[in-house]
Amino acid sequence: MRGTNRQLRLARRPDGMVDEHTFELAEEPLRGLADGEFLVRVAYLSIDPTNRVWIRAEPSYLPPVGIGEVMRGGGAGAVVESRNDAYPVGTGVLGLLGWQEYAICGRDVTANAVPPGVPLQHMMSVYGATGVTAYFGMLDVADPKEGETVVVSGAAGATGSVAGQIAKIRGGRVIGIAGTDEKCRWLTDELGFDAAINYKTDDIGVRLDQLCPDGVDVFFDNVGGATLDTLLRHLALGARIALCGAISTYNAAETPPPIHWYVNLVVQRARMQGFLVLDYLDRFPEAVRALVQWVSEGRIQWRDHVVEGLEQAPRALNMLFRGENTGKLMVRVGPDPSA
Amino acid sequence: MRGTNRQLRLARRPDGMVDEHTFELAEEPLRGLADGEFLVRVAYLSIDPTNRVWIRAEPSYLPPVGIGEVMRGGGAGAVVESRNDAYPVGTGVLGLLGWQEYAICGRDVTANAVPPGVPLQHMMSVYGATGVTAYFGMLDVADPKEGETVVVSGAAGATGSVAGQIAKIRGGRVIGIAGTDEKCRWLTDELGFDAAINYKTDDIGVRLDQLCPDGVDVFFDNVGGATLDTLLRHLALGARIALCGAISTYNAAETPPPIHWYVNLVVQRARMQGFLVLDYLDRFPEAVRALVQWVSEGRIQWRDHVVEGLEQAPRALNMLFRGENTGKLMVRVGPDPSA
Fold this sequence. Notes:
10 helices; homodimer
């Protein structure tokens, strides 16, 4: 039964985008399991902006991945060998499995069972960290009221698209910012957004003047930098900014791009609040229940973007920063027994 | 009884600091009172950073002062003539009386009676907008808990010094940032701050590394710009930033100075919130009651800095931005019947 495990290990910290020198593909024999451990064959790896954060030298909300260590990443797979009765062979699991074909879980690595009947792939997207992030960020942090104007940046992304749809369910007027006309059409024609702004061809400030003459009540921000700064100039009284991420800053070698108009937080008595889905672990079931309900009612739609093969993970990460993905980006590493 | 009124009117919007061309001293005859009006002889004008905001061209939380209009300013005085039974001659009042010797209140200008027995001068400082701002900003917005580390910028200022003392009353460990060694000694030796940083001679970041190795839980910010950016790099998990003002930005002709490290709001799940004391008008009595109590117990100290003469108001405003005042800056315009 013991075979080899292929892994992507961090070889060098990148300056900007990751490249062919950032990771090295290594093979090592699989060791035997200790009591309580179980072996997971990884089916999918979730590719997220936060992967780029984890390979910066600076500590973040988790310690940086060390040089020579397996790249950290969320994934889903199935148990193929077990010395843990709670995780018999065949169990679908979710966890920080790492960029590798097999993960030994149960002691050093925590993995949680996927609810029966839910496809592994959906646990990487709508019911995964991105969907749950959208849920808590929009409802707990931003908390839009009926009729309020809500703007979402990175709106065609995995988190932004769900966040915007949740704001619609709440009765908000929702405007998405995305990077292609095709993405903008998807937002308005299929997801029910009230308007969309193509930041590559439109001036966001001018469009916000037209679309939100009374200002923006809620901004769900995935981007940071100049986009955030423009929104700061369009806040309504009592506005809430939920800072979900700042993708525009993650590849910055040194100092992130600036914002200037934070002083408008005073003028508009507004709040800018960062959050991480990790802080909501104990409330995940609440979010997944709500998302399952909304999906079953056809009120939440999403797209998955699956890239094939472990060795494509670094390229997939760059696709994310170039906006080349359409929907939740993931890498298929091995077979999906739930498909 | 009808005499003349001397006024400072806005003549030209300044680029940076105000200068001799910004205001013009004008005289006009006092008009008669209409029913419901009362005439106030101004005793003190409060000089605050917000005065500078009000003469920018851009709308803020109040419309800009128009060219040719009397400069807007908070003040205190006594009623000297009245056609309003609620405000008989001799009543001490407080309001946006403007940079002038006499204000006609009761219709166009609202003025509120000062509690009997409280000196007019104290209504410009510890019981005035600055003290009340400190109260709500620290307790409502920042809400420090026992043992938390609290940093205050502009800590020797009228608002910052009271804010820091309130944080001490709440059981916080309080560090003040100020611009002279004398101010720093006042904070630590007389007001009971735990430490002080002279931003002109010390590197704030280095000092925060030494003084707050576990990060800053609460930052009460009067300054903005580079000071705010440094604090963003020293936040503890769950930190709260109360944005009271951004004095470093008010003289900026165009774009305010940048901050870069807002992304740490995500990493530390922190919140940055602007507030204005105007939103707490209905709760002023609560704040003044608490401040009166603390002052009577010797737990809050403050200094007033009185500049003599209406025509000195523009110079006094610049003193504020140069950090030349020690304590709450005000201009004495006329006699103080409560002194």
